[in-house]
Specification:
The structure holds two protein chains of two kinds. Helices cover 78% and strands 0% of the residues of chain A. Chain A is an all-alpha fold. Chain A has one domain: MetI-like fold, CATH 1.10.3720. In chain A, helix 10 packs parallel to helix 11, helix 10 runs antiparallel to helix 12 and helix 11 runs antiparallel to helix 12. In chain B, the strands form six sheets. In chain B, strands 1, 10, 11, 12, 13, 14, 15, 18 and 19 form a nine-stranded mixed sheet that branches. Chain B has 17 helices and 21 strands. Helix content of chain B is 28%, strand content 23%. By secondary structure, chain B is of the alpha+beta class. Chain B has three domains: 146 residues, Dipeptide-binding Protein, Domain 1 (Dipeptide-binding Protein, domain 1); 134 residues, 3-Layer(aba) Sandwich (D-Maltodextrin-Binding Protein, domain 2); 211 residues, Roll (Dipeptide-binding Protein, domain 3), CATH 3.10.105. The longest helix of chain B is centred in the last third of the chain and has 18 residues. Classes of the chains: A mainly alpha, B alpha+beta.
């Protein structure tokens, strides 16, 4: 059984690498299609033909596309990401603190939302059509319908600017300070992300739980005289969490891109705001790297979800062996 | 975030070029008074960290002689100083400047004497060599600075060191505005050998760190020549991706100053007891540009008709919530010679516009259909083109304007809509009439005015060499007549700008100024925290 799972994991990793490779081609193609070339965007109206030519040579923009691509891909693999056109500093130096800040934000949001949505979903399923079920359904439906910037704006109005002034309206990280140095400033971005993710996941968790609770094996377990707690935690939960994993993964992956709005709203120095900035200033090395990171998050979270689902779901585990 | 909130990042993209003041050739004597008197009466507390929020991003730059956005302005002002500065009437003075005196010997010869004992942040003494090196840098076309307008009337060979503290500027063309030119904030003095990377200036705060898109930290410089007016321990200039977050941070008391607040928020911020709002107008303007050499705008009937089509008041209200002054298609608002012919205000007159167009053969069946563009990174401009397109509908289909919003990176690029199409938008900071005429004629020929047969350029050269104020006014009146009757700009209004700050911030001077926070308090001088 162990070797089969290992085989499955290896296969999935290879598929993931393939996906990333195709994505890297796409990213490169799309950034090439952006109107106005970077040398012009950098020099602006001060551009002279000589200066443009010099800059194109410096950044290798005068080389054929294929060699530009292989050069870039080689750089990604060896860790040499080039120089940001906008900041004129190495991309890794500019992006690294932002990557860790964004991942920290996502991690806290994930650690909060996963258990929360599982508990809400499971409870709603257990007391189907009860008070908790209907009210949690209604609330999560309303919250799910609101885009992040609306949620964020409302939270800001409530907690920082208009009604109470108890939480910071923006995250202020001193340069070089770790993301956890402003815990208070993280409150609203994390809360916004929690509200963005939890409704979906708890809805899926509820549906899965309802299905499992009605299944034959749960019925069987009950008939065997097991107490309800054991039925729930030993038999129902593992089978219900599987599908929820998939949705959690999709939502986290979505957050890696969707965090742009939240970061902008709270002036959070992460990859989202950097990406928005880079697109404006045609900072191709930064755009390409960030797009690849976000794609990587998609691939990895989905991979982990697939593996997790297989490992926790007894019937899938058996099928593989 | 929706697109309008992103657009709200405001007038922040292109160069703001240095503002140039009124054409006063106040030969010799200059005051060193006003500000110190204004800042005196309260007890000043020393120390503290001032946090200033400003819209900026990864393409922030830090240079003594070049800026793109407001964040760059704030940083330049925090570190570097100019020879002269402007007073509240936009006349050049030595207050807060590195010059002890400035003398106009003739319209082509100016002598600047430097203050004694001024130190750079690295401890070295300021000398005439640094001034000459700074202006050589501005004159070097290979270096990206705002020195382009300077190059038309000054050559490096015209910079002469008289003694260690005296520099003579010998111009190749007469320029009665030259002392005002020296007060332009991007014509700042750096140490000889400055390469744009090591930010060593002469201001009251020296740079500790700068991270593009995040913040810069500036610490008090104890050897500052005017140390008695430097009160804070530290100034932090913090970047904000957009104005919503900036305003929220100020309301939540996370920052002390929000630079360039959106006018929609003006009333809200003003109503808060713990905040002050300061509004300024310095003749900055937004405009529609019509290229007089591109069809159909080569036809003056078309240009004049479009000027008559604009409901300026409605446009001002819609674009700036009324925070500005209505324009009359003439620039140089802060110049004593603004509208020298005293033309009455141009009003919307649809019938007259349609009549003019009829002369050129346009009608409902053969409408004048034109494309008008604005960049998406400049909020005022987007609203302006949309408003004009709507106002054109009053002609009942004789004029059809297709308003198109273009990505800023494309719009301002060398092949973009800016300067390359017939009908587009622009913005400028305020400057004197002649300085603006030169900039619009040669540095950024946005409308390609004047036409070949015009006397405009000759008149410009004549006026630039005329010391007699009355005679100069007469020539300028002639130039303005030609622009009013045949020019390519539609200038619907001059825009104000506003800042909000905590009542804890003491010493903010409220007077007419071209930069936010009274030229960022000339490098955050006079400012203390209560």
């Amino acid at each position: 059984m162990k070797t089969s799972i290992l085989k499955f994991i290896v296969k999935r990793i290879l598929l993931g690498v393939m996906t990333l490779f195709i994505v890297s081609l796409l990213i490169f193609a799309v950034t090439q299609a952006l109107p106005s070339d970077p040398a012009e965007a950098i020099l602006g109206r001060e551009a002279t033909p000589e200066a443009l030519a010099a800059l194109r040579a410096e950044y290798g923009l005068d080389k054929p596309l294929v060699s530009q691509y292989t050069h870039w891909l080689g750089g990604v693999i060896t860790g040499d990401l080039g120089t940001s056109y906008a900041t004129m500093t190495p991309v890794s130096e500019y992006i690294s603190p932002r990557v860790s800040a964004s991942f920290f934000l996502l991690l806290i949001a994930a650690l909060g939302s996963i258990p929360l949505s599982i508990v809400i979903g499971a409870n709603a399923a257990l007391r189907r059509d009860g008070k908790f079920d209907t009210s949690s359904s209604l609330i999560s439906l309303i919250l799910a319908a609101m885009p992040e910037f609306v949620v964020g704006t409302i939270l800001t109005v409530i907690f920082s600017t208009t009604i109470w002034q108890v939480l910071p309206a923006v995250t202020y990280l001193e340069v070089g300070a770790p993301p956890w140095s402003d815990i208070k400033g993280l409150a609203l971005p994390v809360l916004t992300l929690l509200i963005a993710v939890t409704p979906y996941v708890s809805r899926v968790m509820r549906a899965a739980m309802v299905e499992v609770l009605e299944s034959d094996y749960v019925e069987m377990a009950r008939l065997k005289g097991m107490n309800e707690r054991t039925v729930l935690w030993r038999h129902a939960m593992p089978n219900a969490v599987g599908p929820a994993f998939q949705v959690i993964a999709l939502n986290l992956a979505y957050l890696a891109g969707g965090v742009i709005i939240v970061e902008r709203l709270y002036n959070f120095p992460g990859i989202g705001s950097a990406l928005a900035d880079a697109v404006r200033s045609r900072d191709l090395p930064v755009i390409q790297y960030l797009a690849l990171i976000i794609a990587g998050v998609y691939v990895i979270t989905n991979l982990l979800a697939d593996i997790g689902t297989v490992l926790v779901t007894p019937r899938l585990r058996t099928r593989l062996s | 975030m929706n697109s309008s909130e992103i657009e709200n990042s405001g007038l922040s993209r292109r160069h703001f070029i240095q503002g140039l003041g009124s054409a006063a050739i106040a030969a010799g004597v200059m005051s060193t008074s006003s500000i110190n008197a204004l800042a005196a009466p309260f007890a000043i507390k020393k120390g503290g960290v001032l946090k200033i929020g400003v819209v900026g991003g990864a393409n922030d730059l830090f240079d003594a002689n070049y800026i793109v956005a407001k964040a760059d302005q704030a940083r330049l002002m925090s570190t570097f100083e100019t020879l002269l500065t402007f007073n509240e009437k936009f006349q050049p003075v030595t207050t807060n400047g590195l010059a002890e005196s400035a003398k106009a010997n003739s319209p082509t010869k100016y002598t600047i004497k430097l203050r004694k004992g001024v130190k750079f942040h690295d401890g070295s003494l300021l000398s005439a060599d640094d001034v000459i090196a700074s202006f050589k840098r501005l004159l070097d076309p290979a270096i990206k600075t705002t020195g382009k307008p300077l190059r038309t009337f000054l050559d490096p060979s015209g910079l002469v060191k008289i003694d260690n503290l005296t520099v003579e500027f010998n111009l190749k063309l007469p320029n009665v505005d030259f002392l005002a030119t020296l007060a332009g904030y991007t014509y700042a003095i750096s140490k000889a050998g400055y390469d744009g990377k090591n930010q060593i200036g002469t201001s009251g705060y020296k740079l500790v760190s700068f991270t593009p898109g995040r913040e810069s930290v500036h610490r008090r410089f104890n050897d500052y020549w005017d140390a008695k007016n430097v009160h804070l321990n530290e100034v932090r200039i913090i970047d904000f991706a957009d104005k919503t977050a900036l305003v929220n941070a100020l309301i939540a008391k996370q920052i002390d100053v929000a630079v360039d607040i959106p006018f929609e928020q003006f009333k809200t911020l003003k109503s808060k007891k713990y905040l002050n709002v300061v509004e300024n107008s310095a003749g900055a303007w937004l405009a529609f540009c019509m290229r007089i050499d591109i069809k159909p705008f080569d036809d003056n009937n078309v240009r004049q008709a479009l000027r008559l089509l604009v409901d300026r008041k409605q446009m001002l209200n819609r674009v700036l919530s009324g925070h500005g002054k209505i324009g009359n298609d003439l620039y140089g608002y802060i110049d004593a010679n603004y509208n020298a012919n005293a033309y009455p205000q141009r009003q919307q007159n649809v019938a007259a516009a349609v009549a003019l167009l009829k002369k050129s053969g346009y009608s409902k069946s053969k409408p004048l259909r034109v494309e008008l563009t604005a960049p998406d990174d400049t909020s005022g401009l987007v609203l302006m083109i949309q408003t004009l397109a709507e106002q054109a509908k009053k002609t009942g289909g004789v004029v059809i304007i297709d308003a198109k919003v273009i990505d800023g990176g494309t719009y301002w690029s060398s092949k973009g809509q800016y300067m390359n199409t017939g009908f587009y938008t622009t913005y400028w900071s305020g400057r004197s009439y002649l300085a603006q005429a030169a900039a619009s004629m040669d540095t950024y020929p946005e409308t390609k005015f004047p036409p070949a047969n015009s006397k405009f350029r000759k008149d410009y050269e004549l006026a630039s060499g005329t010391i007699n104020a009355k005679k100069r006014r007469e020539i300028i009146a002639r130039m303005q007549k030609e622009e009013f009757e045949k020019g390519g700009y539609i200038i619907p209004f001059f825009n104000n700008f506003a800042d909000a700050y905590s009542t804890k911030v003491v010493g903010v001077v409220k007077r007419p100024a071209q930069l936010n926070m009274d030229y960022y308090a000339h490098g955050f001088k006079y400012i203390s925290l209560a």
